[in-house]
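Supplementary Methods S3. Input chains for the assembly prediction are listed below.
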Amino acid sequence: KAGVTQTPRYLIKTRGQQVTLSCSPISGHRSVSWYQQTPGQGLQFLFEYFSETQRNKGNFPGRFSGRQFSNSRSEMNVSTLELGDSALYLCASSVVTSGETQYFGPGTRLLVL
Amino acid sequence: AQSVTQPDIHITVSEGASLELRCNYSYGATPYLFWYVQSPGQGLQLLLKYFSGDTLVQGIKGFEAEFKRSQSSFNLRKPSVHWSDAAEYFCAVGGRGSGGYQKVTFGTGTKLQVIP
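Predicted structure tokens for the full assembly:
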């Protein structure tokens, strides 16, 4: 089975721009979670989607949003980028819920200048 | 609310020496517990997990962990460390979030350095 894929792997943006990241889960997995990882804050939960519905949400501003499509693929969007949004964004998929075993993608490294 | 504490930010061990990484959790019921490993620039890979049953759990790459309910701990061990084990290790606890759904909370990680 193919693993979790994330595109793009690297991205450079400037402040004020917006960005969309994509995640394709493992086939048959219906739950997709997003995390932001930075050296200072560690791994922080953004949100979880299941069957096209947001099921859990972390403590991030409304600039961070996401969605899930009927094939379980997910996208996250960050509008009005700030320097502090520079991070590794990880996507993880699981069969039903993020409380079970999660399988992580390689991440998208976002640099905001 | 659930939480995870990894008290050691950085650990250095010699190749061939034994390893123990500490993890303490807080959760009201029996938790799901995980250890993940992350190599530089990579995503996280599951090493092992505890859901129920035998409290000593075997994982990949020769790792094991023991769930101790009385100490709220889930420490990761390896009898003999290899240079390729150098990475960051994350302990995580899964439980029911505020929305009623399962969610997982990660610790802040422990960076392992292996010296020859």
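The mean pLDDT of chain A is 93. The radius of gyration of chain A is 13 Å.
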